[in-house]
Write a structure and sequence with these properties.
- By secondary structure, this protein is mainly alpha-helical.
- It folds into 3 domains: 72 residues; 192 residues, Lysozyme (Orthogonal Bundle); 69 residues.
- The protein is flat.
Length: 349
């Protein structure tokens, strides 16, 4: 049954959305009247009150914020130009817009989570950008990590995929990660990022298409090759794939849109509220005997929890003899190496 359209705020909205928009606009009107009443009640000579210009400016910001929320229900205001990994998305197609909006609106229902994701994004962006530059791949691949784990380095899925990039054990090993009871490099932020980008680069080499590479990261390259052979297309947007995989790529798109244009979606995060960037350097050490991991935290001059959060891949208190990649706060790298060299059973490479 075709819905009845209401023309409101230069947008056509369906009945269910009409009442949401109406509520937001009523809030705008209430703010305006409240602000006007407040200004009239203030004496011009009041010394301790905020200047009238500042109060008006604050009121205008509130109105703009509420207007942005109202615009979320205006489908005419949705983005009409989406690009991911330098490839254009045919968002003008009705089916693609529906798939994109499904992910976008569901994400926007939890703005608290989105705020955390945005803060984490800028926390880990310098580290990921360094590895992206090294690998020579599109910077948009950072949004794949956002989709995989919400950038939680400790994330574990129901299928036991682990870390920020959600590697399965076997895939991680194939991509050069050490995975055993003592060391699990799926949880090493730098090493797993390096391996994930290398894996994606290989997938793009197979399919010559970043959308298919991302789909293969989720479903496996065999599933994508099967779809190509049986559906007579290499266009991701024309393929029939597992729903999880189809949603996966559109969720990456939606998260990129929200993070890149957060103000548009009512997510105002002040620069001073962002988390401190995770600036870490990798130091390779070799020990000829078992040692207590506490000496690593002491050499970094940080609490044990800080050491562990940067080195989630080192799973034991007592580490057997061997070679280890240790992530050290960048500003403490030189002093860490100097202190570690004071142990005659450890060498820094």
């Amino acid at each position: 049954m075709k819905g009845i359209g209401f023309k409101f705020l230069s947008a056509t909205v369906l009945p269910g959305r009409f009442f949401v928009v109406l509520a937001i606009v009523c809030s705008v009107v209430a703010l305006i009247f409240a602000g006007a009443t407040h200004l009239e009640a203030q004496s011009p000579s009041k010394k301790n009150g905020a200047p009238a210009e500042k109060r008006i400016g604050d009121l205008e910001k509130d109105v703009l914020r509420l207007q942005r929320q109202a615009d979320l229900f205006n489908l005419d205001a949705m983005p009409d130009n989406l690009v991911l990994c330098n490839q254009k998305v045919p968002i003008f197609r009705e089916d693609n817009r529906e798939r994109f909006e499904r992910e976008l609106f569901q994400l926007l229902e939890n703005k608290g989570l989105l705020t955390i994701i945005i803060k984490r994004y800028y926390k880990y962006l310098p580290m990921m950008t360094e590895e992206i530059t090294r690998a020579g791949v599109p910077s948009d691949l950072t949004y794949l990590a956002v989709t995989e784990s919400y950038l939680n380095p400790r994330a574990v899925s129901k299928a036991n995929a682990g870390g920020m990039w959600q590697f399965m054990k076997e895939t991680g090993k194939l991509e050069g990660l050490v995975v055993n009871d003592v060391v699990d490099e799926r949880y090493n932020m730098k090493k797993s990022t390096r391996s994930a980008l290398g894996h994606l680069k290989k997938l793009n080499g197979q399919f010559n298409d970043w959308f298919l590479a991302m789909a293969a990261y989720n479903a496996g390259p065999g599933r994508i090759r099967e779809a190509i052979e049986n559906q007579f297309t290499r266009d991701f947007f024309d393929m029939y794939l597992p729903e999880e995989t189809e949603r996966y790529v559109f969720r990456i798109l939606a998260l990129k849109e929200i993070i890149a244009n957060r103000e548009r979606y009512g997510l105002s995060v002040d620069e001073k509220e962002l988390y401190r960037p995770a600036l870490i350097s990798e130091v390779v050490i070799e020990s000829n005997r078992e040692f207590d991991s506490c000496i690593l935290a002491k050499a970094m001059d940080v609490p044990y929890r800080t050491y562990r959060m940067n080195n989630l891949h080192l799973r034991k208190y007592d580490l057997p003899k061997g070679i280890y990649r240790v992530n050290v706060p960048a500003e403490k790298k030189d002093s860490f190496i100097k202190k570690m060299r004071s142990y005659n059973f450890i060498q820094c490479q």
